[in-house]
Amino acid sequence: MEEESEKNPETDVAPALISVHPTHKFVSVAVGSDLRVFNLQESCVVTLADESGAHKDSIRAIRYSANGQLFVSAGDDKLVKIWATDSWRCIYSVVSEKRVSAVGISNDGMFVCFADKFGVVYVVDIEDHDVEDRVPVNKKAVPILSHYCSIITRLEFSLDGRFIVSADRDFKIRVTIFPKNPVNGAHEIQSFCLGHTEFVSCLAFVGCQDYPQGLLVSGSGDSTVRLWDHTSGSLLDTYNCGAQAELLHSNGKEEEILPAITDLCTTPDSSVVAVAIQSLPGVMLLRCNLSTRTLSVAKVVSIAGEAFIPTSIGGHLGF
Amino acid sequence: MLEHEANANANSTHSKTTGLPRKRFYRARAHSNPLSDSHFPVPISPGQVDYSVYYPQLFPSPDKFDGSKRIEFADVGCGFGGLLISLSTMFPETLMIGMELRDKVTEYVKERVVALRSSNPGQYENVSVVRTNSMKYIPNYFEKEQLTKMFFLFPDPHFKEKNHRRRVINLHLLDEYAYVLREGGIIYTITDVEELGVWMKSCLEGHPLFEAVTKEELEADAVVKLLSSATEEGQKVARNGGQTFQAVYRRIAPCVSNCEKH
Ligand SMILES: C[S@@+](CC[C@H](N)C(=O)[O-])C[C@H]1O[C@@H](n2cnc3c(N)ncnc32)[C@H](O)[C@@H]1O
């Protein structure tokens, strides 16, 4: 989680973003157009090497690949930057026609996907990213699927890599088969997960050894976190976090307005989901029971301090 | 037609001074229909479509609906409903619905159906209309593999290249139509605009989940004859002696291996 940046009052500030390297080596933070990476193991700031220059406008999405070798940052400057985390060099800078709202990396690290503000999802083939002496080329992105006229808020690959899941600002979650050769498009829709009544802000998968395909969790402006069987699209459970958070931190005002879920975070091989809620100065931890397919509150962790609004939550939580 | 562009400025949901999400963009409304898109309500999911509203004779109360009989035909951009009226008596056992964006036109079709039902007792109970934006809400109305026929008759042409993405047939929307159509289901398209005819055919041809219906099958299919004659738009074109361009494709199973079309 990060506090909202209060600087630069003249321009719209994007929510601060945080992302933790899968083996806790690095933590990346984006505030506005500023991208910072900190080496957690050596306790030092990482210097980014980017010949094409830094992001010039608000960063809207950052993430590490599953094996931690790649990092992607993208946003309003219509650039998708793909970084090698061993050297922290920007190895590709992909130009998008429109502003970028979400990014995803296939589990095998072969493809980077990103969504633009018209709801179109593009794929970039980066299979050659670890080839020695590779000539830097300008990668071309190809459209693979689209949410008609709705901004895509999140892209996520299923744990088994079979599906790419996209969520939008209407209420829709689309589960699409991610083909072997995605540059020809991802045409086969597996399911729609429909149930949210406001924009979907975040997605994550929970899974464990006994349940490797996992289940999908989503958070929304409707103040709920929902659990889905993403292969069938069926809604398994709904947890009304907002109502809970309001009970715990009621300030007596604005009772009717349920706070939005701003982010979700899961950890591999754990059934705990950390939830950032707009009005909650802290984090709500939900337990996902994969055999009964239910959600329940495990703990609410309060974080003291003023003007704290969680906007993004990342990494392996040590709770 | 009305167009709901993606809110071009995602930033507008955030306050200029604090950068915080503005409450009014993020509040969950307690009472009004949360999925209302401008003026019409949208069902949250296909399971929440109230069939008693559309087919009152067949589903007298909302609780009587057991999901055993579902809508199978969708006429997308049905206009004044001429096609549905013909299909209704041709397939009396099949539930069918028109989807229309314009309010007044939808009201007209509703009244037309009510009038036909009362002057022909027992008939036209299987046909209805809903006001919606089909380009956004098809998955809210139909489950996966629910439909057996979809119709796109004389859709708006949207000539300018930058507006091609507004065309009701495009490669991406075909993914959704393939999702709601069951294997073997048929998609019927017709237009009097040659450029649009070529476009619709090439989109369908390029989509891995559709294949062209053969000439013999087209001749044997009584529905094909209605494409140019049953709708108001079709009749207008016929009166003016205009040419029409049709593309009729079948929903096929996906290739299991990683094979390529063509
Ligand atoms: C040229 S008319 C054809 C009507 C009818 N199919 C016929 O052949 O007479 C196209 C119709 O599509 C409707 N339409 C356009 N976009 C639509 C959308 N996104 N959802 C539903 N209807 C739409 C328009 O309101 C119009 O009535």
UniProtKB/TrEMBL annotation, chain A:
Keywords: Nucleus, Repeat, tRNA processing, WD repeat. SMART domains: WD40. Transmembrane segments: none annotated. It holds the Pfam family WD40. The keyword Manganese does not apply. WD repeats lie at residues 52-93, 193-238. It is found in: Nucleus. Forms a heterodimer with the catalytic subunit. This is tRNA (guanine-N(7)-)-methyltransferase non-catalytic subunit. It comes from Abeliophyllum distichum. The lineage of its organism: Eukaryota, Viridiplantae, Streptophyta, Embryophyta, Tracheophyta.
Automatic annotation (TrEMBL), chain B:
Coiled coil: none annotated. The active site is at D156. It holds the Pfam family Methyltransf_4. It is found in: Nucleus. GO terms for cellular component: nucleus. Residues 8-18 have a biased composition (Polar residues). Residues 1-22 are annotated as: Disordered. PROSITE patterns: SAM_MT_TRMB. GO terms for molecular function: tRNA (guanine(46)-N7)-methyltransferase activity; tRNA binding. Its main location: nucleus. It catalyses: guanosine(46) in tRNA + S-adenosyl-L-methionine = N(7)-methylguanosine(46) in tRNA + S-adenosyl-L-homocysteine. Its EC number is 2.1.1.33. Keywords: Methyltransferase, Nucleus, RNA-binding, S-adenosyl-L-methionine, Transferase, tRNA processing, tRNA-binding. Pathway: tRNA modification; N(7)-methylguanine-tRNA biosynthesis. HAMAP family: tRNA_methyltr_TrmB_euk. Belongs to the class I-like SAM-binding methyltransferase superfamily. TrmB family. Catalyzes the formation of N(7)-methylguanine at position 46 (m7G46) in tRNA. This is tRNA (guanine-N(7)-)-methyltransferase. It comes from Abeliophyllum distichum.
